[in-house]
Amino acid sequence: MCPSSRDPTFSIHLQKMGDWTESLYERLLPDADETDEILPVMVHRQYPTLYVDGPFGSPSENVFHYDVSLCIAGGIGITPFASVLNHLLNEGTKSSRLRRLYLIWVCKNITSFLWIAQVLCSLQRQAWNENRPDFLNICLHLTRSRDVQILEREYPFLNSRVHVGRPQWRHIFDEVARYNPSTTVGVFLCGPKGMSKGIKRICLKKNKFHTKFEFHKENF
């Protein structure tokens, strides 16, 4: 996640998939327990030197160029949108032309949502304080695990946003169109190819509300 005018630091989030990321994981956290929900406290050890190049442009930057944006993430695909959420949290919901943001995140396990749960709750609270209660619309879809007790205990606000099962994309787009008639909605997706193809087909179809969906995708 990139730094902002109020937060000069940035963080890098990697999913352990394959030899390279597994090797890096072992170099950085050799004693970590994979079942831990939170990264263990850093201890004094010799870490490898990392070189960072960038930043480079991303389709998600255009989220702020629309009055209404719909962000769709599959699993780790939430990463580019985490930067968007942090920007809004740091700069305020009135820092751009964006007046409504939809976020749909599809995950297999409930623990994945804990990564930015606090950011989502803080941004929703900030939108209310800025008299924009309809600014952020969150839908979290859980495709495997049905255990939502973690969210119930720690983030009751998000608990009511969790839906068990895969999203009904046609219904979701119809609802967005109904609440935003005759509007151009920016659709930003970061997820698997199958999800991308299906969403793109829906965006190209006309609807009775004369809402136009402009599709943007970002690869893993």
Please trace the helix and strand order, writing H or E for each element.
HEHEHEHHEHEHE
Question: Structural class of the secondary structure composition?
Answer: alpha/beta
Which radius of gyration do the C-alpha atoms yield? 18 Å
Helix fraction bin: 25-40%
Indicate the overall shape.
globular
**Which strand order spans the largest sheet, edge to edge or round the barrel?**
4-3-2-1-5-6
Query: What is the number of E strands?
Result: 6
Q: In DSSP terms, counting alpha (H) and pi (I) runs of 4 or more, how many helices?
A: 7
Describe how the helices and strands are arranged:
Elements: H1 19-28, E1 68-74, H2 79-91, E2 100-107, H3 117-129, E3 136-142, H4 149-154, H5 156-159, E4 162-164, H6 169-179, E5 184-190, H7 193-204, E6 212-218
Parallel strand pairs: 1-2, 1-5, 2-3, 3-4, 5-6
Briefly say what this structure is:
It is built from seven helices and six strands; from the N terminus they run H-E-H-E-H-E-H-H-E-H-E-H-E. The chain has 220 residues and is an alpha/beta fold.
